[in-house]
Amino acid sequence: MRIKARRNFELYKNTIFFSVVLFLFLFISVGYSVLSTNLEIDGSAKVLKYEEPVIENTWKKDALLDTNIDFSKVSSATNGRGLYIRSGTENDENPIYYFRGDVSNNNVLFGGFCWKIIRSTENGGTKLLYSGTPTNGKCNNTGINLSISWTGLIHTTRFNPNAKASPSVVGYTYIGNYEYEDMSETKSKNLIYGNDVTYDSSKKLYTLSNIYNTSGGQKYNDIVDEVKLGYHYACYNNKKSTCETVYYMFDSTQGDFTYYELSNGDKIDDLLEYFFTTNNTVDSSAKERVDEWYKSNMTAYTSKLEDAIYCNDRTIFNKAGFDKDTDADQDLLFSAYDRVVNKTGPSLNCIRNADRYTVSSSNGNGKLTYPVGLITADEAVLAGFIYDDNSTDSYIKMGIGVSTWTMTPLAYGTLSKQDLEMFVIGGRSLETNLRPVVTLNNSIVFSSGNGTSNTPYIVN
């Protein structure tokens, strides 16, 4: 009985041993199958390690340097489609990684919404573009369903509604209603004009210099032709060359001069500085809508987000009529015009602090209420678009007749009576869709998924 008992005990031990071995084998096999979920980059399988942050587990070893991409052309199989490192950042502590072209592996499910990965940030965060609400955990939205809505129905909005807008309203925030005025033909014929002004602060008087005098009874069209080419200043009081308030004529395309009033020694460059860097406290219509949406849907997830920079680049490429020596019949063009329209190449540098929209003032202008903004025109170019070409070879594609605002100014249009022009992805319209952008912080990991629309990455 003892021997039998001993043999039974050893058999029991052996059973336990082999059971444990079998369990560990199955556990490791199953675990390996989970951790070896493949990320497809340009057709090659890469191992996704969910325990690592986003850049480590999806990008760092798979991206190509973009030195051979021609950004004056749309993305394609031969001009960039996949995951890239922005040239010039490859040796930085946090290189810029971005997706380009009609890729299908940059889908993310976060906060109950679908997103597309745009790029990484200088701090190692991950910028995401809103792409609608999921259906059964899948992200296959198209058209207006890629954009946010309010009151449950409305998807489109103007960037800013002011009909007599100053250039300030290209701002994500701006100075409010600083409106231009139109000057009658009769008034225009009875002024003295100057190419420049000086200011005596003790007397609080402007004095016109390099004068053009209309006292000879010239025809109105002749006056317009002279003034628009370099005599933009005029005293508000008839036939005087000194005044406390001075007019600045910046446009004459509609038959009458359009002007701003300047006082307290300000000249036109001071007014431009005021438009774009000073006291921009009024939210644009676009920002109001984006903030409303974020407040209703995303505040519970703010701790997972980086206070990234959202660039509203209002630096100027061509001052046009806002340059005292330049023809007033041209458009004021912002710097992105040169990069995107002239196709000199996209830039992710946001030079001026006033244009760097952030929540905290430690890394930007501190004018955001929430860490959310819009995509820039330069990011759209990196993603595969070019100006005035509605390419479908980009993950940002909206569909025929559907467009979305960027937060990048294009021009202040004199030819369309001070029309506000922002870069738009897709067809042009006064009212356009909004797709917010948020940025995951650099500690975020994905818990599952492979980035496809049917199996998006899930944020842990």
Could you explain the architecture of this structure?
The protein contains 8 helices and 28 strands. With about 450 residues, the chain is of the alpha+beta class. Among the domains are: about 1-35; about 40-140 and about 445-460, no CATH class; about 180-275, no CATH class. The strands form 8 sheets. Strands 11-17-16-14-12-13-15 form a 7-stranded antiparallel β-sheet. The chain is elongated, with a radius of gyration of 29 Å. The two termini are about 60 Å apart. The model is unreliable at about 1-50 (pLDDT under 50).
Defining traits:
460 residues; alpha+beta; 7-stranded antiparallel sheet; 6-stranded mixed sheet; 8 helices; 28 strands; 19% helix; 26% strand; elongated; disordered N terminus
